[in-house]
Write a structure and sequence with these properties.
Number of strands: 6
Oligomer: single chain
CATH architecture of the largest domain: Up-down Bundle
Helix content: 40-55%
Domain RNA polymerase sigma-70 region: 13-76
Structural class: alpha+beta
Subunit structure: Interacts transiently with the RNA polymerase catalytic core formed by RpoA, RpoB, RpoC and RpoZ (2 alpha, 1 beta, 1 beta' and 1 omega subunit) to form the RNA polymerase holoenzyme that can initiate transcription.
Strand content: 15-25%
Strand order of the largest sheet: 2-1-6-5-4-3
CATH class of the largest domain: Mainly Alpha
Order of helices and strands: HHHHHHHHHHEEHEEEE
Pfam families: Sigma70_r2, Sigma70_r4_2
CATH superfamily of the largest domain: PhyR, sigma-like (SL) domain
Domain RNA polymerase sigma factor 70 region 4 type: 117-167
Number of domains: 2
Protein name: ECF RNA polymerase sigma factor SigJ
Shape: globular
Largest sheet: 6 strands, mixed
Length: 302
């Protein structure tokens, strides 16, 4: 059976959609914006007769990169007046929503580069540095390919990558810590719910920090909370005010174990963690409702 032009375009889109989303999400830190960029990139590429493009993957990545940079430029002023800490939109990667959301293919997941801590470090880079760094470090592109995508020389891309890599310093994730994550997070929840402060102090580092992103839309801490005692007091205060229909579930958030909480069966907040030496080093809580719109309501089977 002969494959039509439309069918060929659809096959190209399905083949490269996970890659495009993976790049766009890391660039933007937004699930919904990344989905929009991917869709727009494909529509634009299809209008230019994608079937006759010599290297569709590089071509699509170039479109996605440029559209991400345009999006970041237009959002820069909003970021400057953002109320409180800014955190990326949580990316929920569970089988329950795999049919309803563009998810990165396992080949592009690289869990450590999806973590909230990693995405925040990427924010320190310029837009071009971020693109070069992601294409090289995460997606394993050659410098000649990167040069074609970002419109710079291969030598320049090497320099940009080296500068970006030096600017980012995140301790490598230890396999032992990865295996301990589930147990530590569950211990933390149990200690918090039961009011066992003594146990909490053994799970959370004394100099831990908590970031709460409400974006000025809902009540949230407008400044980071420092120290395990202050964090415990802050979280205990929230716990005491929870409504009766509050419920939560453990799930994979940004490639790591996280917690999605619901009120009235609607997503209320998402909490992720950064571990260091077997203890929780940082808490990231997204309560901004605009950043939770893509998360599905509570299901009994969740």
């Amino acid at each position: 059976m002969e494959i039509t032009g439309a069918e060929a375009s659809e096959q190209i889109y399905l083949s490269y959609r996970p890659l495009m989303f993976s790049l766009a999400y890391r660039m933007l830190g937004s699930v919904m914006d990344a989905e929009d960029v991917v869709q727009e990139a494909f529509l634009y590429a299809n209008e230019t007769n994608l079937n006759h493009v010599h290297n569709p993957k590089a071509y699509l990545c170039k479109i996605v990169t440029n559209r991400c940079i345009d999006s970041l430029r237009s959002a820069s002023k909003k970021r400057e007046v953002y109320v409180g800490p800014w955190l990326p939109e949580p990316l929920i990667t569970t089988s329950a929503n795999a049919d309803n959301q563009i998810l990165p293919d396992l080949a592009y997941t690289h869990k450590e580069s999806l973590s909230t801590a990693y995405l925040l470090l990427l924010q320190q880079l310029s837009w071009v540095e971020r693109a070069v760094f992601l294409l090289r470090e995460v997606l394993q592109y050659e410098y000649d390919e990167i040069a074609e995508i970002v419109g710079k020389s291969s030598t320049n891309c090497r320099q940009i990558f080296r500068r970006a890599k030096n600017a980012i310093s995140l301790p490598p994730e230890r396999a032992s810590e990865t295996k301990q994550t589930t147990a530590i997070v569950e211990q933390f929840v149990h200690a918090l719910v039961s009011g066992n402060i003594a146990q909490l102090l053994t799970i959370v580092k004394s100099d831990a920090i908590l970031y709460s992103d409400g974006g000025g839309k809902v009540n949230a801490a407008t400044n980071p909370i420092l120290g395990v005692e202050r964090i415990a007091k802050f979280l205990s205060g929230i716990l005491a005010k929870l409504p009766e229909d509050y419920r939560f579930t453990f799930t994979t958030v940004n490639g790591q174990l996280g917690i999605v909480a619901y009120v009235n069966n609607q997503p209320n907040n998402v909490m992720t963690f950064q571990l260091e030496e077997g203890q929780i080093k940082a808490f990231y809580i997204v309560v901004n409702p605009d950043k939770l719109k893509h998360i599905e309501p509570w299901h009994m089977e969740a």
